[in-house]
Amino acid sequence: MATSSHLEEGIDVTSGARVLECVVVTPEETAIQTPAQFIALPLFDGEIGIAPGRAPMIGRLGYGEMRIREGGNLYRYYVDGGFVEVVGNMVSILTQRAIPADQLDEAEIEAALSDAKKKPANSPETMAIRDRAVAQASGQRWVARRER
Amino acid sequence: MANARALDKRRKSIKNIRKITRTMELIATARFKQAMDRASAATAYTNRVTGLVANLANTGMELSHPLLESRDNPRTSLQLVLTSNRGLCGGYNGNVLRLASDNQQQLADEFPTSLMEVSGKRGVTYFENRQTALAETFLQFEDKPKYEEVEQIANRYLDAYATGMIDRLDVCYTKFSSIARQEATVETLLPLGTLVDGPGDLEQGSEGQGEIEFLPSAESILQEVVPMSFKVKLFKCFLDAAVSEQVARMVAMKSATENADELIRELSMTYNRARQGQITGELLEVMGGVEALKN
């Protein structure tokens, strides 16, 4: 499993034999199940990188880009909130949706974003609802734009 | 004695109907398997969410969230009824609709306003015939409800609950417990009550893996896990309803096919008897003619 990608992400090559087992679960299906050398995830308050040997953790995901590096390949997805759980070398990602970055439609996202911005925000509850919709749409836009 | 040709005609039409019911049975079986796979995928997700909640509970944190607590003076209730778009599935729709009507009656007694939303053409026509006002109807759910579509509905409910538009959400659907057992049930999804179903679930979280780090914080994760488990629960209701519908259709069509077999057998017997009777009659006529010519 030891490939050049370990060095790229700055992982100690001596532990190159250790790989993460990455499982992405959505309510409809197990979307991805793959070994991985490195996973980058959008947490609620910033990005996190997970390399083999990470201490156990549970994190709340935001809306943004997930990158899975497996061998020489880099897979990019948009994840729509949810959680990540790291136990040992097992990384479980629970999310509502995991959309491959190249399947995002930018025109559609723009429309959703402007819709979200027009939502009423005259009380704390409605503001939270609007902020969430805006965060989702702008997260998608960010992932879609990087694809170009 | 019945006319042999008329009997044959009837037998042919029953044979055609049998072909149709048999095909529908096979289709329902195939769809049931697919729906079942989807339901078990959702169960995997739910289990992981439960495990997560168990980990949260192990930190000794108090699990409290606005969605978990019932309100003091509730005003509006909402009932969502899940029925099928198509018929020919035995008592499936009837059971759900009967229970839904009863429950709606109860809700109307408890709450000043009680709304109702219905998914499935069967339910919509049922309530339309009874002149019950429906707040919303959905016809897009077939045997494979999409999470995205359910999520939209779930989000609308969450928003309505957060802003105080509704104070309680009941879902009336057919719960799938096993292939031989599906029951129409009413579940209150908002307020959610508890996150974990039983105390037994709390045990599995502590597998001696040491301290778990929560990012950004355990509270923040709780904020997200509660709406999420609501959405998954609602999605599970839709999936259960879809699976149960297929099972109900499978069973109904199986008995229809068996019934057709029975009818065909009986008709064949009557037909053969009638034909034999006809032949005997003709033979007698011929022999009578021969006898007459001899003399």
User: Main beta sheet of chain B, described?
Assistant: 5 strands, mixed
Sheet having the most strands of chain A: 8 strands, mixed
DSSP E strands of chain B, number: 6
Which strand order does the major sheet of chain B show?
A: 3-2-1-4-5
Taken from the alpha-carbon principal axes, the silhouette of chain B is: elongated
Number of domains of chain B: 2
Q: Indicate the percent of residues in helices of chain A.
A: 25-40%
Element string of chain A (H = helix, E = strand): HEEEEEEEEHH
Tell me the CATH superfamily of the largest domain in chain A: F0F1 ATP synthase delta/epsilon subunit, N-terminal
What does this protein look like?
The complex is a heterodimer of chains A (148) and B (295). Chain A is of the alpha+beta class. Chain A folds into two domains: 5-101, F0F1 ATP synthase delta/epsilon subunit, N-terminal (ATP Synthase, domain 1, Sandwich), CATH 2.60.15.10; 105-147. In chain A, 28% of the residues lie in helices and 41% in strands. Chain A is built from three helices and eight strands. In chain A, strands 1, 2, 3, 4, 5, 6, 7 and 8 form an eight-stranded mixed β-sheet that branches. In chain A, strand 6 (73-87) and strand 7 (90-94) form a beta hairpin. The longest helix of chain A is centred in the C-terminal third of the chain and has 24 residues, at 124-147. Chain A is globular, with a radius of gyration of 17 Å. The two termini of chain A are 30 Å apart. The model of chain A is unreliable at 1-12 (pLDDT under 50). Chain B is α/β, with parallel strands linked by helices. Chain B folds into two domains: 4-23 and 256-294, Orthogonal Bundle (Helix Hairpins); 31-250, 3-Layer(aba) Sandwich (Pyruvate Kinase, Chain: A, domain 1). Chain B is 60% helix and 14% strand. Chain B has five helices and six strands. Chain B has helices at 4-58, 92-110, 121-129, 147-162, 218-294; strands at residues 76-82, 113-119, 136-138, 168-178, 181-190, 213-215. Chain B has a five-stranded mixed β-sheet with strand order 3-2-1-4-5, sandwiched between helices. In chain B, strand 1 (76-82), helix 2 and strand 2 form a beta-alpha-beta unit. The longest helix of chain B has 77 residues, at 218-294. The two termini of chain B are 32 Å apart. The relative contact order of chain B is 0.19. The A-B interface holds A 25-30, 43-45, 48, 55-60, 81-83, 85, 87-88, 92, 94, 96-97, 123, 125-126, 128-129 and B 38, 41-42, 44-45, 48-49, 51-52, 55-56, 146-148, 151, 159, 162-163, 207, 209-216, 220-221, 223-225, 228, 231-232, 235.
